[in-house]
Automatic annotation (TrEMBL):
Mode of membrane association: Multi-pass membrane protein
UniProt protein name: histidine kinase
Swiss-Prot/TrEMBL keywords: ATP-binding, Cell membrane, Kinase, Membrane, Nucleotide-binding, Phosphoprotein, Transferase, Transmembrane, Transmembrane helix, Two-component regulatory system
Superkingdom as given in the UniProt entry: Bacteria
Gene3D superfamilies for this protein: 1.10.287.130, 6.10.340.10, Histidine kinase-like ATPase, C-terminal domain (3.30.565.10)
Membrane spanning residue stretches: 12-35, 152-174
One GO term describing the cellular component: plasma membrane
EC numbers, comma separated: 2.7.13.3
Phylogenetic lineage: Bacteria, Bacillati, Bacillota, Bacilli, Bacillales
Single GO MF annotation: ATP binding
Coiled coil segments of this chain: none
Length: 455
């Protein structure tokens, strides 16, 4: 069953239940209201009869009101409470005795009397003074009231029926308005399944459905970008792996076939060892990236003293800094602590520092400081910097500048920093004139963990 049909069926069933319950309650209340109104009228009639009867001392005159009672379809008892006897009755002695047996005369709280299949609405009017013990008891059949009740309920049923029909028609249009965007969204999801991202269209909707539509659209864009990046990754990976493999294959076949003399063969072996090392480094970094993407939970967070952390990076970088005759400066503002996976964070920052050393002319700077609720690592150099066209893709895999190695170092750095709930971005250094890489991490919170930065 379709969703629209299910919603309509559920609404109709709920409407029927509510209307049935309301009808039963109203049906009962109508009878109660009619009985109360009838008792009020009986009380007014009884007062008139008492005034009439009070003018006569002779009990025989009581019979003169029979015609009036018959016209009004009323029954009357003149009851003496002190003697517990009926002085006058418009009903037979057997009926009076039956009412006595049911204790109706003594029970002042009972307003409905039963005689066989007939029921009567009763009202008691006391003669003045009350010490006389005389009561005028008027009875009227409840059948007339039931007829009025059924007539009212019949009309109410027609009103309910027309209202229910209008509500069902309105429900159809409302559910159709609700379900139509979902049906269209289903078609758009089918396009995502078939990878037809260029054919996707936006859907007009509101409320939560609009939020779902926006989420689906964002998901499709992210998926499209991911697939394109994966395609680019495999293309670049195949190119990066193919070049050293072809070099190794060429030298290996030449040595096997005796094409090279002894000196060239030695050089070929050195080239092969170099290319194998390069291949191994590329493969290891690809494996690391794959682990960072597929195993984000393998992250051992520890407390890191930033000054000691930076000193360790300088120790690693010192040989290549001295070799290139560069000046490496570092500054840590105050005592700063970071909570992160030390091994992974060391890899990320080292990759960025070595990248700066590779392109620097004379100087590289490392500056760590705290600002508001974040800790910043600024790494700057005085090289050529990053061009505007490369700024957006510098952190993509296998994107490398002149003199780069594998093209995976900055991609690994970004993956690690983002796994640490931080951000990394590139820009131009105002101080040194070259490239500036900024890594931003949230201030540690021991109880709640690091909060994730907004893009």
């Amino acid at each position: 069953m379709k969703l629209q049909s299910q919603l309509n069926a559920a609404f109709t069933a709920l409407l029927l239940v509510i209307m049935t319950a309301a009808g039963l309650v109203i049906y009962s209340l109508v009878l109660d209201v009619l009985i109360q109104d009838e008792q009020r009228q009986l009380a007014e009639t009884g007062e008139l009869l008492i005034n009439f009867l009070s003018e006569y001392d002779d009990a025989s005159e009581y019979r003169n009101i029979n015609d009036f009672l018959q016209d009004q379809d009323l029954q009357l008892f003149l009851y003496d409470r002190n003697l517990d006897t009926v002085l006058f009755s418009t009903m037979s002695i057997s009926v009076v005795n039956e009412f006595f047996d049911e204790n109706n005369f003594e029970d002042n709280e009972e307003t409905l009397w039963q005689h066989g299949n007939d029921r009567f609405v009763t009202q008691r009017i006391i003669f003045s003074p009350e010490q006389s013990g005389l009561e005028l008891i008027l009875l009227t059949p409840i059948n007339d009231l039931r007829a009025v009740q059924q007539n009212f309920f019949f009309r109410l049923a027609w009103v309910f029926l027309i209202g229910a029909l209008a509500a069902v028609i309105l429900s159809y249009f409302m559910t159709n308005k609700l379900v139509t965007p979902l049906s269209l969204l289903k078609k758009e999801l089918k396009k995502v399944e078939n990878r037809q991202f260029d054919q996707m269209k936006r859907i007009r909707a509101s409320g939560e459905i609009k939020e779902v539509e926006q989420t689906v659209y964002d998901m499709a864009q992210t998926l499209e970008q991911y697939m394109k990046s994966q395609q680019t990754f495999f293309q670049n990976a195949s190119h990066e792996l193919k070049t050293p493999l072809m070099t190794i294959q060429g030298y290996a076949e030449g040595i096997r076939d005796g094409i090279f003399d002894e000196e060239d063969a030695e050089k070929g072996l050195d080239v092969m060892v170099t290319e194998v090392s390069r291949l191994k480094k590329i493969i290891n970094e690809m494996i690391l990236l794959a682990k960072l993407d597929s195993q984000p939970d393998v992250y051992e967070e520890t407390e890191i003293d930033v000054q000691t952390f930076v000193d360790g990076i300088l120790s690693k970088a010192l040989p290549i800094v001295n070799e290139n005759k560069l000046k490496l400066q570092q500054k840590v503002d105050g005592s700063i602590t970071v909570y992160a996976d030390e091994e992974k964070l060391l890899r990320a920052v080292t990759n960025v520092v070595f990248n700066a050393i590779r392109y620097a002319h004379e100087e590289v700077s490392i500056h760590v400081y705290k600002k508001k609720n974040y800790i910043f690592f600024d790494i700057e150099d005085d090289g050529k910097g990053v061009s505007e066209e490369d700024m957006d893709k510098i952190f993509h895999r296998f994107i490398k500048g002149k003199g780069g190695e594998t093209g995976l170092g900055l991609a690994i750095a970004r993956a690690i920093i983002e796994q640490s709930n931080g951000k990394i971005y590139a820009g131009k250094s105002k101080k040194l004139g070259g490239a500036k890489f900024t890594m931003c991490l949230p201030v540690p919170n021991k109880t709640k963990g690091n909060k994730k930065l907004k893009s």
